């Protein structure tokens, strides 16, 4: 027979039981009471096996409930957490079943809450949110249901705010390049093409003709300095190619080159 040598209070609702054979068991208060464990008590091998099996489950359940007390978690997150805490696979399965019975784990509820929060505080589109929920372990049908809390009018509202914020950060670009950068930002945030089109139609991108030309001159001067050692033909070709790719009109580019030639005569 094995004897209980010492019982010490551990963290939370757990106790450490030191056995005569040198083994230490970590058990919950429930197991302590259920098996009436006391210092000096003798325990059979069969009872010890039962305590070991129950101990992992009870400890894991308490750890999981504490983990869930801070915020909602998905089933995948709970399983990952329990695995990191070295809870056995069978115990993890039983714990998840118990937590679902207690409605402490519900991936659909988590998804709906997550979407509502992201719509309120973030600048992410539905595609990005969908990817994040997938990584958290939600099933496709759960993600689809959760995204009903992100209707198209809300998507347009969030996307427009994101576009306006992006527009304020863009300086010294042509109108076309500015529009491309804003569109690219919205795509990276996870908004659909039709939502992006709707938003782009609402944003005032028009730049005064002379203002755009002034921006062209700034960029063209840098290109001129970079290629000034080339002969005139090659230099002008490189400047034309670079500025045209940035969205400036051929007429404005040619105007710059004509003015530059005159000023250098």
UniProtKB/TrEMBL annotation:
Q: Where in the cell is it found?
A: Cytoplasm
Query: Which residues are in the RecX first three-helical domain?
Result: 62-99
Q: Where is the RecX second three-helical domain?
A: 106-147
Major site of localization recorded for this protein = cytoplasm
> Where does the RecX third three-helical domain lie?
154-200, 210-257
Q: Name one GO biological process term.
A: regulation of DNA repair
Q: Which UniProt keywords apply?
A: Cytoplasm
Under the heading InterPro entries, the entry gives: RecX_HTH_1st, RecX_HTH_2nd, RecX_HTH_3rd, Regulatory_RecX, WH-like_DNA-bd_sf
GO CC annotations, alphabetized:
cytoplasm
HAMAP family cross-referenced by the UniProt entry: RecX
Record-stated family: Belongs to the RecX family.
Protein task: Modulates RecA activity.
Q: What is this protein called?
A: Regulatory protein RecX
Q: To which species is this protein native?
A: Enterococcus phoeniculicola ATCC BAA-412
């Amino acid at each position: 027979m094995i004897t209980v040598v010492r019982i010490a209070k551990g963290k939370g609702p757990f106790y450490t039981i030191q056995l005569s054979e040198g083994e230490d068991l970590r058990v919950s208060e429930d197991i302590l009471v259920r098996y009436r464990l006391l210092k000096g008590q003798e325990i059979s091998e069969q009872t010890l096996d039962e305590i070991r099996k129950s101990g992992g489950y009870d400890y894991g359940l308490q750890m999981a409930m504490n983990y869930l007390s801070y915020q909602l978690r998905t089933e995948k997150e709970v399983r990952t957490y329990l695995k990191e805490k070295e809870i056995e696979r069978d115990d993890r399965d039983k714990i998840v079943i118990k937590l679902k019975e207690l409605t402490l784990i519900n991936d659909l509820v988590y998804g709906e809450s997550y979407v509502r929060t992201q719509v309120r505080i973030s600048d992410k589109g539905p595609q990005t949110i969908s990817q994040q929920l997938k990584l958290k372990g939600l099933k496709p049908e759960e993600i689809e249901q959760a995204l009903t809390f992100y209707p198209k009018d809300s998507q347009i509202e969030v996307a427009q705010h994101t576009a306006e914020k992006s527009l304020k950060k863009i300086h010294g670009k042509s109108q076309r390049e500015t529009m491309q950068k804003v569109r690219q930002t919205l795509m990276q945030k996870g908004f659909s093409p039709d939502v992006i089109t709707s938003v782009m139609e609402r944003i005032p991108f028009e730049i005064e003709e002379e203002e755009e030309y002034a921006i062209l001159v700034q960029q063209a001067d840098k290109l001129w300095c970079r290629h000034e050692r080339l002969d005139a033909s090659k230099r002008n070709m490189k400047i034309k190619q670079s500025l045209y790719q940035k969205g400036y009109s051929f007429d404005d580019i040619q105007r710059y080159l004509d003015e530059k030639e005159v000023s250098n005569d």
